[in-house]
Design brief:
- The protein is an alpha/beta fold and about 325 residues long.
- The chain has a single domain, classed as Metal-dependent hydrolases (TIM Barrel, Alpha-Beta Barrel).
- Helix content is about 40%, strand content about 10%.
- Strands 1, 2, 3, 4, 5 and 6 form a six-stranded parallel beta sheet that branches.
- Strand 7, helix 9 (about 220-225) and strand 8 (about 230-235) form a beta-alpha-beta unit.
- Helix 1 (about 5-10) crosses helix 12 (about 290-295).
- The chain is globular, with a radius of gyration of 18 Å.
Length: about 325
């Protein structure tokens, strides 16, 4: 079968992009194809992306003092785009929504928050964000917040705070996906010990292949897999390889996780629009079928590829958000 046809027949999930924070500053819209950046609805359709996680990123400059304000500003921007392009885009609050939107030929948007600063240290903000459609939260960015330490705080060896434990438990109750990308290693282990549901890493790669602090080590990968979670392998060049990152080296990360925990715990989390440079073979969302071509050439079975492209994330979403 032609790889493009195969790719478009699959349910494709991208678990992370930062497009919402780029739209206004770059004078772009979701509905119009742009030569700038990586993601818009025309390119998502061309690239066969059925489910796109849109991150509400709280830049460090806002912190917890202005985190709520910034989060609401970006969520409002999403809704403006959603209302304007509702014929092409739908908001998915559960997996039934995803399936309905997929049947209608629309891109299903899953709203996520990147950076627990969006809570402003207030647990009640979780239920408010849930009502606004948020279904996933990356607990930290690289820095420390009131929930936990990020990966840049290696000196402290800090993990979840008492408030962070409350956040994880409340997210479990609400049915929100817990994202451990950007989280310190101690925080990672704390989350796995506290959460009673599978957790995900929306955009991280393998440390043993590329020794970047943002990547997960083999012990973490095995534990996340054993807990039923999924790792969204990212196209960030410096997370793929320290020298000449390309598609083949990206696929080495796929192979490595498959060798550790099998293919049922691998997904895609491009980090499009969160990076200025991509690998040459996949320079925007429209080029994602090239990933499927690579997986076919590596000898993965049809079922393995369907799971990697989106089936694995859909499975965890069904369990967590319903």
């Amino acid at each position: 079968m032609d790889y493009k046809l195969f790719h478009h027949q699959a349910l494709v999930v991208d678990a992370h992009c930062d497009t919402l924070t780029r739209l206004r500053e770059e004078k772009r819209s979701l509905g119009e194809r742009s030569k700038i950046g990586h993601v818009d609805l025309p390119r998502l359709k061309e690239g066969g992306v059925d489910v796109q996680f849109f991150a509400v990123f709280i830049e460090p400059v806002f912190g917890e003092r202005r985190g709520i304000e910034r989060a609401l500003e970006i969520i409002d921007l999403f809704y403006q785009q959603y209302y304007k392009y509702h014929n092409l885009l739908g908001l998915a609050k559960c997996t039934k929504d995803i399936k309905k939107l997929n049947q209608a030929g629309k891109v299903a948007a899953v709203l996520s928050i990147e950076g627990g600063e969006a809570l402003g240290g207030k647990l009640y903000m979780l239920s408010i964000y849930y009502l606004l459609g948020i279904r996933c939260i990356t607990l930290t960015w690289n820095n420390r917040n009131s929930i936990a330490d990020g990966v840049s705080e290696t000196r402290t060896s800090g993990g979840l705070t008492k408030f962070g434990v409350e956040v994880v438990k409340e997210m479990n109750k609400l049915g929100m996906l817990i994202d451990v990308s950007h989280l310190s290693e101690r925080g990672f282990w704390d989350v796995l010990s506290v959460s009673n549901q599978p957790v995900i890493a929306t955009h991280s790669n393998c440390y043993s292949i590329c020794s970047n602090l943002r990547n997960l080590n083999d012990k973490q990968i095995k534990a996340l897999g054993d807990a039923g979670g999924v790792i969204g392998l990212t196209l960030v060049p410096q997370f793929i390889s320290k020298s000449s990152p390309n598609l083949e080296k990206y696929l080495d990360h796929v192979d490595h996780i498959a060798s550790l925990v099998g293919t049922k715990h691998i997904g895609i989390g491009t980090d499009f629009d969160g990076i200025d440079k991509t690998i040459e073979e996949i320079n925007d969302a429209a080029a994602l079928p090239r990933l499927t071509e690579g997986l076919i050439k590596r000898g993965y079975s049809d079922s393995d590829i369907y799971n990697i492209l989106g089936g694995n994330f859909l499975r965890v979403m069904e369990e967590v958000i319903g």
